[in-house]
Short-chain dehydrogenase
Amino acid sequence: MPKVIAVLGVGPGLGLSIARRFGREGFTTALVSRTDARHAAYRESLPGITAHTYTADVTDEAQLKAVLDRIAAEAGEIDTVYFGPADATAGPGITPLTEAGAGTLRAPFESLVLPAVRLVEAVLPRMLERGSGSLLFAGGLSGKYPMPMLGSLAPASAALRMYVLTLNAALRETGVYAGTLTIGGLIERGDIHRVFTEQDHGFAVGTLDPDALAEKAWSLYVARDEAEAEFNAMAAV
C-alpha cells in the first residue's frame, strides 16, 4: 500500500509543492483547505499522483478530527502530516508588542499553536504504536529571531518552533520523526505572496521557491537527523 501524506492548509505555494514532492515518491496525497474552490485545479496540477481533496478548517478541533478520520478511511492510514495553514489576510491584524495585551497575544496561540498540538494528539498515538511516521510543520522566522514588524505573531511562532524541536527530541528513539521548516520570506505562488505584493508596504521582503522548500522537507523526512531547516530571505535578519 502507498504511504499517505496529509497536507493540512494546502495552498498554491508550499502546500502544493509538498504534495508534489512526496507524490513523486509514490505517496498518496490528501490535501486539506478551508474551501474547495481550488481543489479541482490542485488535483489537475498533480498528474500521475493520487490526490484526495478535503474541505476543513484545521484550526477547528472538531473539523480537524473529522477530516483526519476521513483521510484514514478513504486514502489510507496516515504516514506523514504536514501542518502549514496560513491566513493571507492576517497582516492587518498584527499588533506591535509594545501595544499588545494578553488578549491580543492569545489569538495567534489559539489559531496556530493549539491546532498543531491537537493534530499531534490525534495522529501520534497510532504512529507510536506502529513505530513509524513523520510530523512536519511550517513556522515563521520570527519564532527564532526578534522581528518587531511581526509583533503579536512572534510569541506564537516561537512557541510552535520550540514545541516541534522538543517533540523531535522526545521522539528520537521511537521511530517517529518531527521537524519544522522555519521560513522567513514570501513563498512564491502562495496566497500571502500575492496579497503582500498587491500593496506597497514601504519595505521589500525576499522571496523563496516553494519547490526548494519542499525538497528540503523531503530531505528531512528521509535523513531524520535534523529537527529544523531555516530559510531566510529577510535582509535585516
User: Anything to note?
Assistant: Residues 165 and 214 are 19 Å apart (CA to CA). The two ends are 44 Å apart (CA to CA). The first strand starts at residue 4 and ends at 8.
